[in-house]
Design brief:
Elements lengths: L12 E3 L11 E4 L6 E6 L7 E5 H12 L3
Antiparallel strand pairs: 1-2, 2-3, 3-4
């Protein structure tokens, strides 16, 4: 596994269209941050941890969760 530091100080976060605000399940992603990754975070904890998904894995990841019940 390769770890890459990505500067997120200028990241523009957007809430996923699959998030359900009333239930509090809010996921945010930041596009175009470079480093070959897509950062993901919990919108309720903007200063909390960020998970980075390899950009090449992002499409298959979305396909997987779209097919989930």
């Amino acid at each position: 596994m390769v770890y890459t530091h990505v500067d997120l100080s200028a990241a523009v976060w957007r809430t996923s269209s699959y998030s359900t605000a009333p239930e509090g399940l809010c996921v945010e992603v930041a596009d175009g941050v470079g480093g070959g990754v897509v950062p993901v975070r919990d919108s309720k904890r903007p200063a909390g941890p960020v998970i980075t998904v390899a950009a090449a894995a992002w499409g298959p990841f979305l396909d997987g969760i779209k097919g989930a019940p």
